[in-house]
Specification:
By secondary structure, the protein is of the alpha/beta class. About 30% of the residues lie in helices and about 15% in strands.
Length: about 450
């Protein structure tokens, strides 16, 4: 503690601000599983590292948007990063940027994909599959020809790295507030008509233009020689172009401007690379490895390097937990969690010099006919300033007894930055934007006559 300044009685404060590392195990949350004795995979898994963090820190439940609301990863992260009150640009924008594809500003864009389908007696088109590993050449030829069709509709179709997928930009349309034609739940809904969202009547021209383009694309695909050849070989034809995640790239404050501190990310997929790009976050992209333990060790090393380079908030993401949940094999998710725990051993040291948190962005139940759900996901926070509660194990049931109670996505960043001694002092105005953290670099007054 430094002595008071001239004419002051309070000692000058030491600068003991800490960095924050947020580890998100995608789809971590789950539901009780009979074959695991009525426990979730997190509760049943052997996780000594996460248990040790729980014993050193405080726990709670992360419910991104409250009970019963099934979050998508992109919207959960948008709120977790402090942007809940900022208009979301649409996942199509993020996926394209993450793939290195330029996205025009102020133009409606959507994510497009080739799909297989069957038509029922009522004329409804049911999606039956997607482009397979051996279909790459056929899909490329089809998308090349659809690009010409798109131009006749004053649109631009740009292929993305994933098989049979593309970014579709609708020139002359400034609103992307339209519904998905991709049913997402293929066994429950057919190929869907594109409509303007009910609160965005200005998007009606976008919906009409996209609807017309998709109808013409279907006719072109069904008549295409590539699909005739596929049918002759007994292969399903790629006869439908579906769209989803529509939006518009517009000006968005950077992570630093919004929150007051420099943010960074160790990304695992194009979505998170795109999110880091649009928010101006430094990033290290590591392709997911098959060895989950080694993969997470490498990600924590990268997080440490980003902190050394000046980041004060680092997001670390892995997809393996979510992928395991989608297999609907609970023990597969349990195995991934145990492997992840071994990879997180470095957090025990990091928690001595940073605030570290582990949670999920949503629940991906490993049983039942659901994808994501609004069930709680465990949250544990540890660090030099975190007062331990009575929780000594990781998982949904232990975390319920933690001091934090229920934490929503928009509350998570303030919680972590508060523990990091970075909370903005309410009533103090260091800059034109109200930030969550005390800004690291507010604009200084320069002496005109030094």
């Amino acid at each position: 503690m430094r002595p008071p300044g001239y004419g002051e009685t309070q000692p000058r404060l030491d600068d003991d601000r800490l960095p924050v590392v947020l580890v998100v195990l995608d789809g971590l949350g789950d539901r009780p599983v009979p074959e695991l004795g009525g426990r979730t995979p997190s509760e049943a898994a052997d996780t000594p590292v996460l248990d040790a963090l729980a014993a050193r820190g405080a726990s709670g439940w992360h419910l991104p948007f409250g009970w019963g609301r099934a979050p998508s990863s992109e919207l959960a992260h948008w709120a977790m990063f402090g942007f809940a009150d900022v208009s979301f640009p649409g996942r199509a924008v993020l996926e394209a940027l993450g793939a290195g594809v330029d996205v025009p500003s102020g133009v409606a864009v959507t994510h497009a994909a080739l799909r297989t389908a069957q038509t029922d007696d009522a004329g409804r088109v049911w999606i039956t599959g997607r482009v397979g590993p051996d279909d790459t050449d056929d899909a490329s030829r089809l998308l090349d020809d659809l690009a010409g069709l798109a131009r006749r509709h004053d649109a631009q179709l740009t292929p993305l790295p994933r098989r049979g997928e593309a970014l579709l930009a609708l020139t002359g349309h400034a609103s992307g507030a339209v519904t998905d034609s991709d049913p997402f739940f293929e066994d429950r809904h057919p190929w869907l008509r594109v409509l303007a969202l009910s609160d965005a009547p200005e998007a009606a021209p976008t919906a009409a233009a996209l609807q017309a383009l998709l109808r013409d694309a279907r006719a072109a695909l069904r008549a295409h020689p590539v699909n005739h050849a596929r049918a002759g070989r007994g292969l399903p034809v790629l006869e439908v172009l579906t769209t989803k995640w529509s939006g518009v790239r517009s000006p968005i404050p950077s992570f630093t401007a919004q929150n007051g501190v420099a943010g960074a990310a160790v990304t695992s997929t194009g979505l998170y690379r795109g999110l880091a790009s649009v928010l101006g976050m430094a990033s290290r992209h590591l392709r997911p490895g098959e060895d989950v333990t080694a993969d997470l060790r490498a990600r924590l090393t990268a997080a440490d390097e980003l902190i050394e380079a000046g980041a004060r908030f680092v997001h670390v993401h892995i997809k393996a937990t979510d992928d395991a949940g989608h297999t609907k094999r609970p023990r597969a998710k349990l195995d991934v969690l145990e492997a992840a725990d071994r990879g997180l051993a470095g957090l025990l040291d990091l928690a001595g010099r940073a605030v570290v948190a582990v949670t999920g962005d949503h629940a991906t139940p490993s049983t039942g006919g659901v994808l994501h759900t609004g069930d709680p996901t465990p949250l544990v926070v540890a660090g030099p300033t975190v007062r331990p509660d009575a929780v000594t194990a990781f998982g949904e049931s232990p975390a319920h007894a933690g001091w934090y109670g229920i934490v929503t996505a928009r509350e998570l960043l303030p919680l972590l930055l508060g523990h990091a001694n970075r909370a903005a002092f309410l009533g103090h105005r260091a800059g034109p934007r109200r930030t969550v953290a005390l800004p690291d670099d507010p604009e200084p007054m320069i002496d005109p006559d030094p």
